[in-house]
């Protein structure tokens, strides 16, 4: 039996397939009511099927009254149009002819020419993309870098369209997109989606499945959030890139071949999240700018384009007030085009509701803007200058016509929010509901649809990253209470500071009382209005979260509220964020400043090739510049940097405190406390360290404590790390703490299970799994700062007396571990002891201190030199000798003589010169 949708289509086709062009243009098609009567169906069911046919591009909707429908097949034949567009709806057929011709003309143009910013902020990126796709024989794979919502997916699609335009790939080739984050916690399924799988490859694999690589053969594959791809996945992918062959998961023997242009996209620093071997195979890196990095002209053009797309959906002309555009382009944070699009969709939908009976034009005024957008725009002094720039480029009212370009927003697939509004309004009107009540119902429903089907609103977008969502929602309610009772309008800082304070309060296990009874009485007396408002806060918090809020917390909140109101300028502790990498520290500081406003904070990014002396000098310079007499809190990513603390204080004359394992959340917490809590350097240090260590124990009770020992190559090195940790713990605590070894190649699969099984208090080793607990690097263990961190985690004071011995023990074990695998004739344990003693003599002779890395290099290299003497296979030094190294050579020869006597072996002059090279190149 024929399906209902086909019955509807065949009836519509039969009605119009023999009609003349004149008749079609005059009548404009059939209505749902007419088709329903002919087929004896309900009008609602007929309308449902017709709209499905519209979405399938088989039928065109003419937005007359009543709405009429025509088969695309008839339009192509009778109107002689080559209709290869994505047009679904038109106001009338005459406009349709013009629209199709215009769209066909545009489709014959270079896709990059239609892209906003192709001659501005995206000019370099477009040039790079063109060069990449034209590179013989099959183009260069690309990596797109840019923040969330900056348009990386859109740009990748333009690369695909350009490749078709240039006839580099077939017009029927596929553009496949895959978000690696969707299967981040299940690497097996991630690889199965990419490469496919055969029946029985894993539980649930009931039949063969083609992967995205295979689907994209001859076309383009976009891998979004590529930093989420596991190391195994990266290795499989670069094998495919190198050879063009792959296997489905569970498949053996058969080699499949595909030719795919791969475009990767990420918001992260690729050097810190992707394997170097993988990056080498993606030679073209393209930076996509954030919205706030683009010119005012480009932002206006983007805003108008997004309004045009909404005008097309609703088939109305929009009259947009200049203040609406001004507010939208000057308040969207983090340069997110996706957020701008969400706000425009919301504004248009609300305007459509308020002008439901307007058939031609809809006015969009500032009253349609969400409250958070209005408050941000009106409260920022920076927006005054920005507004002037917009006013020079736009009229008071901008007329927006329906776009002729294809709507590419995947969030709208299967959803026309304007149809939903129309249908619900009609239903409510039939029930006799007043217009005012209808608007209230629909607006509530509209916000739910926008939240569920479109991108999240920006009202608490950034706060949710760091604060529990329930706390975030509660904080917005508290803001309303405060504004109503204090007759003050608070900006977004209220949300951030009160929200983060409450979140921190409910996460703490112990509530410290730091205020005396005298201070409490003074606060209540001097700030009675704020205290009364916070008591209202207390009632709301207790009612919402079903908790009891102690009086001391009411006092803290009162102090915080007063601080936010006054914002008095005073001298504050400064903050210096120091991390390895090209932009990590800068990114953390930028987020803190954007969220919490100006603060005495600076970032110091350290490229991986910078020397320790250079790091030291840069920190001294920055500390001097930052300090205003209150000291500097240094937040660092590696515990070894804290070893500089005493020397930094001596050299700079600035009081410095150091906290390791810095995160963005930690930076936010520090800035909040500095700006609004009037704490000293010692007070902030103690407070942050307490919160830092408290996160380790949060939600962990009732399980055995464990430290995860992670290495890259397997369990061997992790076992060695385990021995180091046990050597520290046995002198630190009698508490049972298990050391669990994990391979970093499988840690994404293993660690979630271990986190459920154990109370994980720390991770140690070559890779940080970032699971919300402190991570200690191998270097930190060697330096001794790792012991300090471990002792703090288990709640014991750090004893510095054995740090040197511990450091030497770790170096010794690492040397022995390496020599055990390679030496044949010499005893690695005995030789290691002798060589470490020799490096001590050499350091004394040269009047310097060697780094751990240099000690390891010298011990291993010199051990191999003595082994070569026994094998009678010494190295020959054929390079031109640098006379500047004569002093080093003399020191090496002088200190080696004792060792040579003990071993009854003599190194050649050439071997000694190679040892000098190791020293000179460090």
UniProtKB/TrEMBL annotation:
SMART domains attached to this UniProt entry: AAA
GO MF annotation terms: ATP binding; transferase activity
Domain PTS EIIA type-4: 572-706
The keyword DNA-binding is assigned to this record: no
Domain of life: Bacteria
GO BP, sorted A to Z: phosphoenolpyruvate-dependent sugar phosphotransferase system; regulation of DNA-templated transcription
Residue ranges annotated for the Sigma-54 factor interaction domain, each copy included: 115-349
One term under GO cellular component: membrane
Keyword ATP-binding: yes
Key words of the record: ATP-binding, Nucleotide-binding, Transferase
InterPro entries assigned to the protein according to its UniProt record, in alphabetical order: AAA+_ATPase, P-loop_NTPase, PRD, PRD_sf, PTS_EIIA_man-typ, PTS_EIIA_man-typ_sf, Sigma_54_int
Domain PRD stretches: 466-571, 826-922
Name of the protein described by the UniProt record: Transcriptional regulator
